Amino acid sequence: MSETSPRLFIVSPHFDDAVFSCGALLAAHPDAAVCTVFAAPPEQPMHTEWDEKSGFTDAHQAIHERTLEDNRALEVLDAIPLRMPFRDSQYSDSPSISKMAAALEETIYRTTANTLLMPLGLYHDDHVRVFEACCEILPRLSHLTWFGYEEAIHRRTPGVVQARLADLAQRGIVATPASPSAGHTIDGQRRAQLKREAVYAYESQLRAFGAGNYDDIFATERYWQLSVGRRVKK
After folding, report:
1. Do the beta carbons of residue 34 and residue 210 sit within 8 Å?
2. Is residue 1 part of a domain?
3. Sorting pLDDT into bands at 50, 70 and 90, what band is 30?
4. Domain holding 204: CATH number?
5. Domain residues for 188?
6. pLDDT band at 93, cuts 50/70/90?
């Protein structure tokens, strides 16, 4: 692979987000790093509605099993798992945005990535917080190539993508429709097959969404190249 080939680092709020939203892209980029931000269990046993819908008896079992699911999915795509020691909002112990940003920046520097993908933060509070953390470090790491990805399922909500693009413009971040170039000669059909296999590794999350509620995962992935421009004055 040449020095100019994309070496991907995908920021994934939860265990499944990178594969659900970027799985076909990952299939074309072996050895991409997938960094899951909210990968830690709560200190004390907890029971949440989502974990129960996923088929788990408590939060510790949920994180343990979801980590195994993530390992299986990323193995299908030849991706490298990275996990951060933060807890998602359902466990009532979310880190500050600045703390997440500092940890993400340090993690990125420890890799050879030259292409960063961040969620647009279209709906879920955890996604919005990760988006904010990424926006904090993007100007400091503007020598790298940045893309935002539209989160599968969440992007279906009318108007959310347009609202986020307007928000980015206010922040002085220019968003242009574009995708990282394929780093591997693998045809689209094979990429779709690999993504589907990886997606089905997340049995618990598909169970929680319910049949017929996650078809958007298999629709065309959409990306926006992000660059620092001029902040819009209000």
Report:
1. no
2. no
3. very high
4. 3.40.50.10320
5. 8-228
6. confident
